[in-house]
Amino acid sequence: MIEYLSLAGRTLAYDVTGQGPLVVLAHGIxxxxxxxxxxxxxxxAAGYRVANVDIRGCGDSSPDWxxxxxSDIAGDLVAVVRHLGGPAVIIGxxxxxxxxxxxxxxxxxLITGVVELAPFTRAQAFDLAGLARVRxxxxxxxxxxxxxLLGRLASWKxxxxxxxxxxxxxxxxxxxxxxxxxxxxxxxxxxxxxCKANPSDAGAQLPNVACPVLVIEGSLDPDxxxxxxxxxxxxxxxxxxxxxxxxxxxAGHYLHAQNPDQVAALALPFLATVAxxx
Length: 278
Fold this sequence. Notes:
This protein has 278 residues and is an alpha/beta fold. The chain has helices at 39-45, 70-83, 95-106, 128-133, 135-150, 153-163, 171-182, 187-196, 200-205, 227-237, 255-258, 260-274, and strands at 3-7, 10-17, 22-26, 49-54, 88-93, 111-117, 213-218, 243-248. It has a single domain, classed as Rossmann fold (3-Layer(aba) Sandwich). An eight-stranded mixed β-sheet has the order 1-2-4-3-5-6-7-8, with helices on both faces. Helix 2 packs across helix 3, helix 5 runs antiparallel to helix 6 and helix 5 packs across helix 8.
């Protein structure tokens, strides 16, 4: 059942399944809470109360927010945790990985742990060598650039082609759902705004994180020349001893949809330690 939280005259959509310590799921750009359609039931069956959120502008949430930065999304996630009676662990994908970093740094009493899936948490230097040498990185970069500049749905679909090295069994229906949602008034402008959002606000908060962080990367993620190296940089910017990195071989950017069982196998032991206090 979809529930709604009203914030500043807009609404955030979410659903809640399961009983136990609270885990909040937040998806990446151009997507919705449907991206967790495989992982959320696994977490609920393992004994967690799972709140799956459509971040601002996406899914069934309102499309007309004032801003789409990681700091904006972080504030929404903190509001959801408060509304649902936290504390909580946040699992954030891509832009929401950065938002989760900000949320835990700014509301440490409410967030006991963070799982960042293929996170966009640090400002990126222009990687000319990577574009020249790594085809998947070049393809992903060029298609995202066309989405950001031109708002081309066809370019987003081409990006998804490389972001999913192996497509889920239900991909035809899921892609049709994504296409229909992004064709709604205002939704593509949200995607463009999120593409343009600078991750430096999240990177600046990494040293201020006080809870454990698990970063999970896919080895074939097209958003970086070397996703594992990007994960290591995130860990290095966290306070010593708080971060750990795992890499799923053969996974792309949407590893929680492509490889949900492997993500769960990594996340559940982590949740068992950090969610005990939630």
